[in-house]
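Predict the 3D structure for this chain.
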Amino acid sequence: MSNTLQSLSDHWRNRYLLMRHGHSQANQQGLIISSPERGVADFGLSEHGEQQLAQVVVDWQWPRPTRVIHSDFLRTTQTAARVAAAFGLALSVDTRLRERHFGELDGQGDEHYPRVWALDAQDAEHQQHQIEAVSSVAERMQAVIREWEQKVSGETILLVSHGDPLQILLTALAEKPLSQHRQQTPLMPASITPLGAHK
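Done. Predicted structure below.
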């Protein structure tokens, strides 16, 4: 459950571990849960997701994190809490790590995702169905890393977020067109992608 982008960030001051939340109740039910109104208080980890996190912590194969920053959605909060507890770290919320907002499709079935991604492939700025533009997601996700690069150095920062935002971030960091974000290898639940300084 590891994805690595080589030589993207040799100039960075910190190392980052990008983590997708564990398997969630939304995944289990096949629902798009992308609004804070639905996602902050409900739709946390599924039983399978809890098992995934327990295994990830036991088999930890990445650098030891020094900070844990997470989206405030329940599924990401619970994921971050499992890792933070294992390393004795405090949690820090950053709403810029939230799920991409899927507008009118929020609360509907996840069979709508491919249609949205097809629109993304045509135009990274589109906001059809009041969906958050890919470019907007890329900007807020990159802003998190930019801020930490300015604040600290030599740290290993775990960023716990969601599938689409993380794939969009990885596409931006690879300097590829944002419309190609679905060409990234899909990030599996509870997967970790290391980025940043190699010491």
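Helices lie at 25-29, 36-39, 47-58, 74-87, 113-122, 134-151, 163-173.
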